[in-house]
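Supplementary Methods, section 5.1.

A reviewer requested that the exact input to the structure prediction be made available. We therefore reproduce it here, unchanged from the version used in the analyses.
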Amino acid sequence: QVQLVESEGGLVQAGGSLRLSCAAHGSILSINAMGWYRQAPGKQRELVASITGGGSINYADSVKGRFTISRDRAKNTVYLQMNSLKPEDTAVYYCNVKGGTYYVPEDYWGQGTQVTVSS
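The structure derived from this sequence is encoded token-by-token as follows.
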């Protein structure tokens, strides 16, 4: 039984900053990738940022230069530092962890946290 616990989001004014964290509790055989997704009202879920076990990082074009993903492997925790926030960043943010092995893959999701950016 693995649970991903996300920090609380919140309300922030445009141009402000916010940091999200996601801690994996329980046994994961191995963590191959950690990332953040978001879903805004009326929009499909989209990948915001991800980091693989090899350290490869990918960002959505809409957040490049503003968001930074990082990890603490000892704590099984991934962070998303969000700077220069815009109203269009308003969404529910979900943590995702992919683990396991080639033979027994694992995929876990956080509970989601609301981030609201006011203009």
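The two ends are 40 Å apart (CA to CA). These observations are discussed further in the main text.
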